[in-house]
Amino acid sequence: TEPAQVGRLRPGSGFLTPTLGIVGCQVRRDPPDSTERYTRWINQLTAEQLLTQVFTSNGPTVIMPTWFCSRAWFSHVGPFDEGGRGVPEDLLFFYEHLRKGGGVIRVDQSLLLYRYHPQAATHSVLEATIWTHRVRFLEEQALPRWAAFTIWNAGKQGRRLYRSLTAANRHKVVAFCDVDEKKIRKGFYCHEDSQERPKPRIPILHFRAARPPFIICVKLDLTGGAFEDNLRSLHLQEGQDFLHFS
């Protein structure tokens, strides 16, 4: 089966075939005020975003405790990685599922009470481990489609992504963009650890002066809507002109 084309699937297309998909649902959190941003994200993604937002730090776009799939499809994709604590087995299975052309379906009813507690096994997975898997999946599934791209965020997360890319993909980065006037006035980011001579200097532009496609390293739902308004003002198509990574 050919891998799903991220951002090119639409409701009613073949990816909704349950035999080739993971089916999940909306959830209620307990306590209700725990992980509020994450809960909003997992419950409000559109059908298209279930595939376009698979690169973010939130992980699978339908959460594993809600998953259903056919036994035949599970056998085709699986099994789960049984490496124990510290292994993001749900993320790894989800990525393999997507590589094999699987779709993602969410039932828009809250059918699970999803409890949060500090001792949950998910907290044993290091952020650096998840970051590495996310970057490799982005490079494998999304970046080959683009000859050049801009990283949206000239701050810590954007620079970290740039440094984490392979040399070939770093060469595709034509600019960083931001709204921070101080960063924009500096004019460029210098990759000091590069072995290249001269060391790469990547321009830093205002987001309105930058050109898509964008890899966005700005967290959603944190700026009172300011970032989302800026993004909407550009009239871009998610999956084609930009992808969220944070």
Automatic annotation (TrEMBL):
GO terms for molecular function: glycosyltransferase activity. InterPro entries: Nucleotide-diphossugar_trans. It comes from the Eukaryota. Gene3D superfamilies: Spore Coat Polysaccharide Biosynthesis Protein SpsA, Chain A (3.90.550.10). PANTHER family: GLYCOSYLTRANSFERASE, UDP-GLCNAC:BETAGAL BETA-1,3-N-ACETYLGLUCOSAMINYLTRANSFERASE-LIKE PROTEIN 1. This is UDP-GlcNAc:betaGal beta-1,3-N-acetylglucosaminyltransferase like 1. It comes from Saimiri boliviensis boliviensis (Bolivian squirrel monkey). The gene is B3GNTL1.
